[in-house]
Amino acid sequence: MHAFRAPETSLGDLDAEATASLIAAAADIALVVDGAGVIRDFAVNSEELSRELAGGEWFGRPWLDTVTEESRPKVEALIRDAAARAAPRWRHINQVAAPGGASVPILFSAVRLGKADSAVAFGRDLRGVSALQQRLMEAQRSVERDYARLRQAETRYRLLFQMSPEPVLVLDAATQKVAEVNPAAARLFGKAARRAIGRPFAEAFDAGSQAAVQSLLSGVRAAGRADDVRARLAAEDRLEVVVSASLFRQDEVVSVLVRLSPVPAAHAGAEPIALPKAKTKLLKLVEGVPDGFVVTGQDARVLSANAAFLEMAQLAVEEQAVGESLERWFGPPGVELDVLMGSLRQRGSVRLFAATLRGEYGAATEVEISAVTVMNGGQPCFGFAIRDVGMRLPAPVKAHSNGARVPLRSVEQLTELIGRVPLKDLVREATDVIERLCIEAALDLTSDNRASAAEMLGLSRQSLYVKLRRYGLGDSGAEEGGAASE
Q1: What pLDDT, in 10s, does the model give residues 120-170?
Q2: I want to staple 210 with a disulfide (CB 3.0 to 4.6 A). Which of 202, 275, 374, 428 is the partner?
Q3: Between 423-445 and 450-457, two packed helices, what is the crossing angle to 10 degrees?
Q4: 466 DSSP β-pair partners
Q5: How far is CA 81 from CA 30, 110, 302, in A?
Q6: What distance in Å separates the CA atoms of residue 1 and residue 6, rounded to the nearest whole number?
């Protein structure tokens, strides 16, 4: 702030009329208020603003009565600062408009008039700025709506791409390298599916078919379309497929959409495979059995699943499960599945393994798992029978001091695992159970006082909070509240 250096000489002897003219010219609206905040005079330099504010009704009224409710503390602060001769500050005030009109935003600053017990409030009309802000907000909302529509369209495309029963790939037209593959294509490529992204598409086919595939892609890039070709995959089963391709452009990038349709065995020169009737009945029985049944590879990724498992996992179709690891549904991650798979690899079979299956939308189901190892083409795969025992074996619960109900594990439950899991896993599980029970006992003894419980257990507060999160005994909100109260 920089004030006049010599106002007595530079401004001369200003009379009341000249002073009033200067004040009126310096602001869109000027108010003269006394020490009690009552309006004694005012000036508005715009006819439109004067009509909108109905200023003729302000004479003799407290300034507070002419503003909206949320602006009253700001008016009181302006009057108080002016009386104390504090440095002027600008404040956003919403003046009440004429009956039936909206409030008018005004930016006010007040200064005291010499030795008199009164002040002048200078106001700047913010209607233009407010209208600009409103247009900006409308434009932002419009952009957000457009963005939401684009996200929805992308979600629909992704869902269609993932659920398509036809193998579909997206290639970079310039390099002919694979950019995306859907689950059906991943199953078709077998072991090479993990390495397909970023590799030349032609490498997925045997040497005798690569020239035809490259010719197809070159024709599509040059003319936008080309006739379908037959080719044989380089995978172990050397499946014969029909390759179709079409060109599309997205974000200045030209891509190729490729569809692979397996040639029926009868047309490929091979006889269809017919299972014995007994095997066919067994497959139908497994598909319709009320217990979940899943077949995985040695990496625990799903190869096949029946309808009962899909219902437990809250999945709509089998394609959503195929290719996913069982760890996605069994928790806590890295504990139950590791114990189960370790025992299964060592013993070849597991019976009545207790676990928790978590669905896609958060539903938790207590289950018992029996599993077996079988050999398929020299490679091991695993079959899992999963039974819902939630109604038969409800998890024991204990009421916490804060009213929450927390699932517990007991020593009796651990003894049931003897002979079914390795000793090192039993020791680790027993350690977790003892640690959890000690923490719960400390919380009960201290009436859920986190600081006292940590001191009792010989832990720092942060270490206790980490263990609470690990065992599901508290939330971050409770922790923050406890820390604040300490």
Answers
A1: 888 888 888 878 888 888 888 888 888 888 888 878 877 877 777 788 888
A2: 202
A3: 130
A4: none
A5: 17, 8, 73
A6: 16
pLDDT at 414: 65
Prior bond to 276 cis, omega within 30? Answer: no
Q: Please give the backbone phi and psi of residue 301, each rounded to the nearest 5 degrees, phi first.
A: -95, 140
> Six-digit token pair at 316?
């709509």
What integer pLDDT is reported at residue 269 of this predicted model?
46
Lowest mean pLDDT among 200-209, 282-291, 415-424: 415-424
Domain ranges of the chain: 7-125, 164-262, 277-388, 398-485
Q: Whole-prediction pTM value?
A: 0.33
Pick the CATH number of 7-125 from 3.30.300.30, 1.10.4080.10, 3.40.190.10, 3.30.450.20: 3.30.450.20
Looking at per-residue confidence, does 384 or 392 come out higher? 384
In DSSP terms, 454 is beta-bridged to none
Does the pLDDT value for residue 236 go beyond 80?
A: no
Per the DSSP assignment, residues forming a β-bridge with 196 are none
Cα–Cα dist 187/411, whole Å? 43
In this structure, are residues 262 and 184 in contact, taking their beta carbons and an 8 Å threshold?
no
* 473 within 8 A of 436, measured Cβ to Cβ: yes
pLDDT score of 47 more than 80: no
Domain with residues 164-262, CATH architecture: 2-Layer Sandwich (3.30)
Torsion over CA of 310, 316, 321 and 326, rounded to 10 degrees? Answer: -40
Asked whether 367 and 357 are in contact (CB, 8 A), the reply is yes
Q: Which pair of structure tokens corresponds to residue 178?
A: 């694979």
Sequence-ordered list of residues with C-beta below 8 angstroms from that of 482, at least 6 positions apart, any chain:
449, 450, 451
Considering just the CA atoms, what is the radius of gyration of the chain in Å?
A: 38
How many C-beta atoms surround the C-beta of residue 356 within 10 A? 16
